[in-house]
Every structure is written in C-alpha cells, then in structure tokens.
Specification:
By secondary structure, the chain is an alpha/beta fold. Helices cover about 55% and strands about 10% of the residues. It binds zinc ion.
C-alpha cells in the first residue's frame, strides 16, 4: 500500500509539473485581423512582403527593395520618416557597401521617447553546408513587422501621447551590427531624446518571445517590462547573456548606457540563418507574443509623464525575475532575494533541528547525503560533458559549450538524460526511505546542497538565486504540511511547482546553448530533482 501511495504522489507531481511547464512555454493564440490591439495576422502581411527572397547586405538590389517597402509603409501611415546614410564600410568578410538606417517617429508632448529597434538585412550564407542565406522571415521579419504593427496602433493616438515613440530600422546587423554602431558613434546626438530601447530579434522561428537581455541596475527597467501582457523573461538569462560573446544591435545601445530590453524567440537554431527561416515557418503565436509584450510596454511608456524624466530608468539595484505559475511574473530586487535566502536558511535550520531531535536524521547522516548528492551531480555534469563531446566527434561538429547546432535528436537526447537524472534520486529515495528509514537524511542532504549552490548564485549570478531559494522553500513547506495534515499527496503540489519552474528553464537553456551545454543542463536539472526524490517518496 505504501508503495502505491508514493507512486501515485510522484505521478501526480510529474503530471502537474509538466502541465505547468508546458503552459509557461506556450505563447498566446494570435488575435484576429479585426482586433483592436496587436494582431499577428496583420503583422504577417508585412513579413510576406519583406521575406520574398534573401535580402542581405551583399545583394544591395534586394536589400534596397526591402528598404523602399519600409519607407513606403511608414510614410503611408503618416509617420515622420528619415533615412541616415553613412559612408561605405568594409565588413569582416571583405564586402563593401553603404549603410542606410531608417528612422520614423510619432512625437509626444514631453519630447522624450521610447525607441524600438530591429534590423532589415537578412543573414547571408554564413554556415558551411548551406546553399543560400536566410529569407529573414523571422530574423528579423518578426522585429520589423512587430514595429510596423505597433506604429499602426500608435499613430491613431498621434497628438495625445505624453511621451513619443521612435523607430529605428538598422542596416547591416548580420555582418557586425554596423548600422547600430554608426548611429551610436556618428549620430549619437540624434538619440539624446531616447531613454528606453526595445530591440526585437529572432534566433529561431518559434516558441515564446523571450526577454533575454537587459542592462545592469535594471530595477526600473523590469518595472516597465512588467506592464507587458504576458511578460516572459528570466533574470539568470540576462546574467548569462552578459557573459557571452554574442552581439546584436542592442549591444551598441547598452554600451552607450541606454536602459532597455532585448526580446527574441530562440526555438530553434536549425532554422536560424538558414533558408528555412522563410514565411512557411513563421509562428503566429510567437508573433502575437512579441506584440503582447511590446505594445503594452509602449502604451504604458507613452501615456505616463513619469517616464519623461531622462533618468527615469536609473536604479541602484538589479531585479530577480521569472515567470512561474500561469499568468504570474515574479520580480523582486536583489536585496529582497538576500532576505528570502536568509528566511530559507532559518526555516531549514528549524526544520533540521526538529528532525534531529526526533531522531529522524543526524548531522553525520545528512552530511553524508549532502556529499552523495553532490557526487551524483558531478557525475551528471561529467556524463553530460562526455556525451556532448562524443556526439560532436561522431557528427564532426566542434565541441562548444554555448554553440553546437546540428546534432540530430538533440531534444530527445537532452530530455532522455534529464529523465534519467530524475529517476536516479527517485529510485534511491524509494528504496532507502523504506529499508533504512533514511528519508529525512536524504532530504536534508539535498536541501543543504541546494543551499550551498544558492550561496554561490548570490555571489556570482544573483539572477539565478530564485532557482535554488524557492525550490528549497517549496520542499520545506511541503514536508511541513504533510506532517501537519497527515496527507501524503500534499507534497505533490510543491513538487509540481518546482518541476513547473525548472522544465522551461532546462528547455530554454538547452535551446539557447545547444547540446554543448549538456553537462551544465544535467547538473542544473539534478539539483532540484535530488530534493524531489526524497520529498515525494517518504513512506
Ligand atoms: Zn537578427
């Protein structure tokens, strides 16, 4: 009987957790053409005009037709349009061409502006093995069409805006962000009336539109980002991205000290910069998700005089932020994160003292399990690393921890191994909890391990602290509630919450970094799983 009970609790946690994870990763349904707000269907019309064929900087004739289309669309809507032309540059591939950025605006009463940026060149054939370049339907048709759709909605409010909105369509992003560089180095004064930048990108064609990059000291930035209808972003991603060598137009603005956000879909790299980035593969849900985030932010900005202050986005601290339950976007400053972690430590100490006094565990046994779980986590890390190196050797793709696209079945490999990383602690707990009455020691060891990682997160990557603080808190709460109510199944709720938090994170990090990061991913997944095993399998 106790076996059936524990099995059912585990199963309930798993099903609920997967459901929560899938909901978090689902972009919204697209709005109809006649809806008042942002409609992906309308935005698609622009993509169908832009992504007819590759329009790279190396084919100026094709690029010029996109440029002409954009200028005509913007003037047709009655916006003030300007083009900024710069002397020809020679890119790192040896090609020379002039730079022409397109700018448009809808002024507001204060003279202060929010700036939307995307690039209108498509990626040339850069990857070996590809016959042609990308058609730029997603990269950066998603950005261009989102901006045109936002412009369409905002121009109906022309004359009543408190703050204005500006649009910048950059040239030559794909070969080195030359268009944005030219604006920031040769035309900086023209952007002095801007205090917030939204860059819209694509590193794939589908899935949720993720806010993956923002400046540091971003408290006020995130407070504005919260105005999005379905805000989707993780503070740890912004921390990781800051340490990565990637660049986009947004990098140029960040370097100049602008506040803002960078949004992109990241699913999946096999479309990115290839002929498969074409209108057949665009996702209306993803496009709607860009709109559901960008439009409400723009509406909030342009209607509130508080943002007209040039320093409106200056802050002293960073935010920790992440989506959790459906419709819930959690954000709090890093000082609060420290307080939460202090509370976690305090509650753990009380819980542990209680378990020791009741002779359910001892310091020695718990410490033994802390080391055991750590050992297993390191084995998971090493196994993931080894497998990713091996896969690279087999497919002749150089191993790279952040970029290793093209491994077949990488999703299956990743999730198969994560499942194994889940089954190991679950099986150990299932057996030891009954046979050796080790349950409290197993749980104490894994909670302690997660708290050690929590401390490291605070020191080196504060945006990741929630990934360890909240699961520990959930597990402690679950164990406490079970003891108080005597109901076994209550622990399925915190277990599902932890799974629902982690599944999207593992999925997104896997998409962003590819299979090269398999070791990191397995290590990351093992940490919460080592707590959930003992939690759901106490007899
Ligand atoms: Zn791009």
């Amino acid at each position: 009987m106790i076996y059936i009970n524990r099995f059912l609790v585990s199963f309930l946690a798993l099903v609920l957790g997967i459901a929560l994870g899938l909901i978090a990763l689902s972009p919204p349904r697209h709005a109809s053409v006649d809806s008042e707000g942002f409609s992906a269907l309308r935005a698609r019309e622009d993509i169908l005009r832009i992504a007819v064929e590759p329009h790279t900087v190396w084919d100026q004739e094709k690029l010029d037709s996109v440029r002409t289309f954009l200028v005509e669309r913007l003037t047709g809507m009655g916006l003030d349009v300007e083009t900024f032309t710069y002397p020809p540059i020679t890119d790192s591939f040896g090609h020379s061409y002039p730079l022409v950025n397109i700018s448009a605006s809808i002024p507001g009463k204060s003279g202060r502006n929010i700036l939307l940026v995307s690039h209108y060149d498509s990626a040339p054939k850069k990857r070996s093995g590809e016959q042609e370049g990308s058609l730029g339907a997603a990269d950066d048709g998603y950005g261009l069409s989102t901006m045109l759709e936002v412009a369409r909605i905002l121009k109906t409010r022309k004359g009543s805006l408190q703050n204005g909105i500006r649009f910048l369509f950059t040239d030559a992003e794909e070969t080195g962000a030359y268009g944005a560089k030219a604006e920031m180095s040769q035309n900086a004064a023209a952007w002095a009336d801007v205090n917030f930048v939204i860059n819209i990108e694509a590193r794939g064609v589908k899935g949720p539109a993720l806010m993956f990059e923002t400046g540091s000291k971003n408290r006020a930035t995130i407070e504005l980002f919260r105005k999005a209808r379905q805000p989707f972003g993780y503070s740890f991603a912004a921390d990781v991205y800051r340490k990565m060598p990637n660049f986009s137009d947004f990098t140029e603005f960040l370097n100049k000290g602008y506040a803002g956000i960078n949004i992109a879909v990241i699913d999946d790299l096999s479309y990115y910069h290839t002929p498969r980035d074409n209108p057949d593969n665009i996702s209306l849900s993803s496009m709607q998700h860009y709109g559901e985030q960008v439009l409400p932010i723009v509406l909030a900005y342009t209607s509130d005089l508080r943002y007209s202050n040039p320093d409106a986005f200056e802050s002293k601290e960073d935010m920790v932020f992440f989506p959790w339950l459906p419709g819930v976007f959690v954000s709090y400053p890093t000082t609060i994160a420290w307080i939460i972690s202090g509370i976690v430590l305090l509650l753990f100490s009380v819980w542990f003292a209680h378990k020791v006094m009741r002779k359910e565990t001892s310091i020695g046994k718990s410490f033994f399990w802390l080391l055991s779980w750590l050992g297993m986590a390191i084995v998971a890390l090493a196994a993931g690393l080894g497998i990713s190196i091996l896969l690279g050797k087999v497919k002749d793709i150089p191993w790279n921890v952040i970029y290793m696209p093209g491994i077949p079945f990488e999703r299956f490999i990743l999730w198969g191994l994560v499942l194994m990383a889940a089954i190991v602690p679950w099986l150990i707990s299932f057996r030891r909890a009954v046979k050796d009455r080790e349950n409290a020691s197993l749980l104490a060891g894994s909670l302690a391990l997660n708290m050690v990682v929590l401390l490291l997160a605070h020191l080196f990557m504060p945006g990741a602290s929630f990934m360890f603080a909240l699961p520990v808190l959930a597990c402690l709460a679950g164990d406490f509630l079970r003891e108080k109510t005597g109901l076994d199944w209550v622990v399925a709720i915190p277990a599902a919450l932890v799974l629902g938090l982690f599944l999207p994170i593992v999925h997104l990090v896997g998409l962003a970094l590819t299979i090269g990061a398999l070791g990191i991913l397995l290590f990351l997944a093992f940490l919460p799983l080592s707590m959930l095993g003992p939690l759901v399998s106490r007899p």
